[in-house]
Amino acid sequence: MRTVEHNGKVYLLVKQSGDSSLVRNPETGEEQYLPNEELTVSGDSPLAVAAERIPGASRRVLTAVHSEQTLGMLVELDERGPLAVRELLGSYDLCESDLHGVVGELRAAGLVREADVGGERGYAVTDLASEGLAELR
Fold first, then answer.
1. 3-class SS at 8?
2. In whole angstroms, what is the distance from residue 52 CA to residue 120 CA?
3. Which of 112, 137, 124, 128 has its CA nearest to residue 60?
4. Would you tell me how many other CB atoms lie within 10 Å of the CB of residue 118?
5. Of the candidates 133, 2, 108, which has an alpha carbon nearest to the alpha carbon of residue 55?
6. Tens of pLDDT along 24-45?
């Protein structure tokens, strides 16, 4: 499968014939025929374009979270947070190094931010993370 552009919009090329091509809108899933002479190859990854059907916040959660443990941390921070580092270490089966590794990945993805929790360093989810988790729920 390839990607094509028509009037500035990227489509997935489903089938091509002599005069026209069947294309799929990656956002809606709707298919339509468009004239070949009005299409240009975009060079975008068809799989990346297909992923655009998933809302952006959910895509960020799905691509940033690589384990159930990391997903669980994100869910807990969303439901209970913000939480102090001391609380996180005492409540979950993570050593300090593992905790900071998980939180570091989530911070790099823009899903977790540092927070002051009762005068202690802690973490909270970002609005993007809350939105993405809500979409997934």
1. coil
2. 39
3. 128
4. 9
5. 133
6. 998 888 999 999 999 999 888 8
Question: Whole-model pTM?
Answer: 0.74
Distances (CA, A) of 116 to 77, 119, 120: 14, 6, 6
* Residues 51 and 61: beta-carbon distance below 8 Å: no
Distance separating alpha carbons of residues 33 and 62, to the nearest angstrom: 32
What is the secondary structure of 60-111 as a DSSP string?
A: HHHHH--SHHHHHHHHHHHHH-SEEHHHHHHHSS--HHHHHHHHHHHHHTTS
Cα separation values, 45 from 8, 17, 70, Å = 16, 22, 27
Q: Across the strands, what pairs with 6? A: 9
Gyration radius from the chain CA atoms:
21
Q: How far is CA 115 from CA 1, 85, 95, 119, 136, in A?
A: 45, 10, 20, 9, 24
